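ok so I'm stuck.
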Amino acid sequence: MSNRIYTSTKRDQTINKYSNREFTKMDCLKWLDTLEDESINLWILDPPYNVLTGNMKNKNGAAVFHSRYTAKVSPSESDLEKGIVTPRFEVAIPWEEQQKLEDYKKWCYQWYCKAHKKLCDDSFMFIFWSMRYLYLAYQIFDVNRIIFWQQPNMISSISGDFCYDITPIIVVRKGNPRLTKEAGLWDKSSVLNFTKPQGNYKKDKLCHPTQKPQALLEHLVWLSDTDHNGNIIGDFFAGSGSLLRAVNRADVKLCDMNREYYDKFFDTYVTDSRIYTCKVIDERKNK
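replied:
not stuck anymore, here's the structure
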């Protein structure tokens, strides 16, 4: 199947070197409280999916939750002992605070309410979600639409999984926002085809196990018509900071508790002006 060509790939690539870019290292709930109400023009979020890895537990006895994405790495015995990866080569992301699905729902509703309050009127919120818990989205969020990211990548040649993987993207609208006038019917398709980042890709190198493609993030930013001087685009599950490379003119406010992935991301894309102009704020070091 030939790849779709989206109009967003032809957008103006002029970068505003004066845009304010910040990456804060702290708990997202605390960070959201520091923002002004109705100050964010677009949220693009990729929260933990809360998928439990069998009976696997780390040394502290906490259940380990992991992403549904497969890492292109081989685990060592020490990694398995630490609970970092599973025997099926899936990168494990610890979910230490919550171990029950009901608690997870309450936590999601908590950050969602805070984030919705910070969103400007007539604005979008895009939330990457899990197929397994798609039904929960309707219990937690004000779902307006669901679009799907279709990934034309072989997940695992060893296990013989299907070549395509689907990730739902929850669309939340506050007020009555409109997609960019430049978008055609093709651009507004409910199924978006974008290849996942890989470790051997030069233009979109994998730096985080759940990293989203730059082109996909660019497409969502372009569709929302928010990449303008003075606007603010945010993500408080920022991971490595991939959203930085998808925004050219607007200010970017990111938050995540882990600094390891950002350091790797920065080293990989250090020549990208959208990366090296980003200010990193570490709550722990500022105490």
